[in-house]
# Entry
Amino acid sequence: LSASYKSSEKYDAPKCHPETRIAVINDIMGWAHSDNWDQPILWMHGPAGAGKSSIMRTVAQKSDEEMILVASFFFSHTNCTGG
# Structure
């Protein structure tokens, strides 16, 4: 499945460099571990090139390592089919 964070089509997909974006990654991981069902969805937003995909790939990897990853889906403009 090419939308998975582990997709072979996304070889060496961008992730955060070690020791960067620690505060935002910790905030997201805290949300993921939270039992607060008042906020069941985390909406990541920001301008193009701000690093949203890198942050979320890092979060997906950490979640997978902790065995709490339920799903991940990443869009890629290099894998488009016209219609």
Observations:
- The two ends are 20 Å apart (CA to CA).
- The mean pLDDT is 78.
- The CA atoms of residues 63 and 82 lie 33 Å apart.
